[in-house]
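subagent[fold] <- orchestrator: predict structure for attached chain, return tokens only, no commentary.
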Amino acid sequence: MILHRRSILLAAGATAAAASPLAALAQGRDAALAAAIAGAARTPANKVRDPFRHPAESLSFWGLKPGMTVLEINPGGGGYWTEILAPYLKATGGHYIATGARPERFADEAVFGKTTWVPFNAQSGPLAPAGSVDLVITARNIHNWMWSAGMLDKAFKDFHAALKPGGLLGVEEHRAEPKPMVPEARNGYVAQAHVIAEAQKFGFKLDATSEINANPKDDKDHPFGVWTLPPNRRSSAGQNQPSPAGFDRAAFDAIGESDRMTLRFKKA
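subagent[fold] -> orchestrator:
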């Protein structure tokens, strides 16, 4: 009986392991992606965010495949996606492009391959040769562009121009619903319908939506907007200012990171 019980427990453990995202990737779907997510190139500060950002599920949903040319817009979180995408694309014969200035640590070609970094602002030119990119990824950027006149339009135009026919655009953004979006999304939360409508204006077709990065604990009612939550953890209106009376940091930390939309568009 003891041996039988042990066999059952071992089998259950093996089934659970096989059901995990990394195990599924490693078992043939995309072993290189599983290796990149588990890789030594990733910092502890980024790995600890995986339960909220779901890297295996998100990248698979967005359509990442070996050998792609991938353009990431304004890498944030200390290069959260860069640490995964650049080694993955190096290993699979693809090419990683990002906007902004390259952090020195990503200059190590032995780890990250030959990456390309390009300007992206209101005056910048094409992000890549027209029709050369397979997948564009923008994570938690759209609210920022809404604060600068014309920038959101420019972003979608630039993405569309860079993508190949049928190319994919992956979007991750703080989601306002079920609350109404405040003007210019100044609290960081954007209406999902607004993102979809803006993308469609510039030739994108909504291909799929996902609840991968949903967080039902996030009621979107925070004193300092989305930045009250981890990872920013803002506790006051400004540097060297006190927290409001009765502010409970532990309550906001218990929510975790924001509720986020996860969308995939296709260049029409």
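orchestrator: received. Logging for downstream: Residues 66 and 102 are 23 Å apart (CA to CA). The mean pLDDT is 92.
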